Amino acid sequence: MSEYQQVVKEGKQKIGKMFKRFLWGILIIGIIGVAGFFLVSNYTYSKGARAGTLIKLSKKGVMFKTYEGQLNLGGFKTEGAEGISGNIWEFSVWKDAVYDELQDYEGHQVKLFYREIIRAMPWQGKTNYFVYKVERVKELE
Length: 141
Fold this sequence. Notes:
- By secondary structure, this protein is an alpha+beta fold.
- The protein is 34% helix and 40% strand.
- A hairpin with a 5-residue loop joins strand 1 and strand 2.
């Protein structure tokens, strides 16, 4: 093997090592980026409670079945040119036990404790509001 061929061979090996390092770097940055995205997306942005009449509760979805509900907060809100509509709050539920408890209270006054996350993934729910606890409100007679 000539000296020229030896230099070319060593150059190809160095380029191959650099390319492998580059690909590994891209892979590690990608994994860190995806993990960071999921951590930030599931960060609890706010926590609170809302009270109203539970008017709808369902399990729906094409690929991912999620628990979704609606709470009538009372009163009305204006929606620009569309006019006036009911003040409805939409929420999602993660746990089966909370969903089962909510089914018992459909049509009744309830207080829902929720946490709001920055971004919901498709398999989590349709909204960014996730109910984790429910209490029935005693109705005035």
